[in-house]
């Protein structure tokens, strides 16, 4: 059996937009500038919706930041949706470092801390989800932790139709992207198809998001106080 022996299928954003229009019975020869402008907005609004539904594994990355003694609050990149896991680098007596998980606090829990300037090895953090988000640690770093690292769920890169650019979407999510876009474009141009395209979009998203998980076992530990000794 002769096969391609390649794994490089990744159409441009423009090509996928044309496919989405075809799903609502608008052919390529019918598309004008207005169609492309609306599609450009709907591509990015679709990605906004996915960010709200996340986390999505393909947008998770690792950030590492230097800690400063006495500084509690640190800036987070503005394209961060959520902090998933955060750990401190801890100095050992022999000059080596170990990593230690740090636990999240809610706004109310952080507000309940009586001495917010107390220094020590941080055991918890508050992620303040502002337009310019921040991380605030408690206890405040005392100089024994050189860095902290965190996995964060980030926005998907902007979808741009011009310039033959590809969407920042991996292979397994391409059909969900096209299906979601077709549903959104049906609202503009084929309202009689909106319900059918919505059902297809939901199905495609569910298929992709079911695959987009880490295939590991779940462990539940009743007590963790010995972890901090």
List the helices and strands and how they pair.
Elements: H1 13-23, H2 33-53, E1 60-66, E2 73-75, E3 80-91, E4 97-105, H3 107-111, E5 119-120, E6 124-128, E7 134-138, E8 140-141, E9 147-154, H4 174-189, H5 194-211
Parallel strand pairs: 4-6, 5-8
Antiparallel strand pairs: 1-9, 2-7, 3-4, 3-9, 6-7
Helix pairs in contact: 1-4, 2-4, 4-5
Could you explain the architecture of this structure?
- The protein has 229 residues and is of the alpha+beta class.
- The chain folds into two domains: 13-53 and 172-210; 57-154, no CATH class.
- 31% of the residues lie in helices and 23% in strands.
- The protein has five helices and nine strands.
- The chain has helices at 13-23, 33-53, 107-111, 174-189, 194-211; strands at residues 60-66, 73-75, 80-91, 97-105, 119-120, 124-128, 134-138, 140-141, 147-154.
- The strands form two sheets. The protein has a seven-stranded mixed sheet.
- The longest helix is centred in the first third of the chain and has 21 residues, at 33-53.
- The mean pLDDT is 93.
User: Into which percent range does the helicity of residues fall?
Assistant: 25-40%
Q: What fraction of residues sit in β-strands?
A: 15-25%
Order of helices and strands: HHEEEEHEEEEEHH
Question: What is the structural class?
Answer: alpha+beta
Can you count the helices? Answer: 5
Q: How widely separated are the two ends? A: 61 Å
Strand order of the largest sheet: 1-9-3-4-6-7-2
Sheet having the most strands: 7 strands, mixed
Q: How many discrete structural domains?
A: 2
Q: Tally of extended strands?
A: 9
Q: Calculate the mean pLDDT score and round it.
A: 93
Shape: elongated
Q: Using the CA coordinates, give the radius of gyration.
A: 23 Å
In terms of per-residue confidence, which ranges show pLDDT below 50 for 5 or more consecutive residues? none
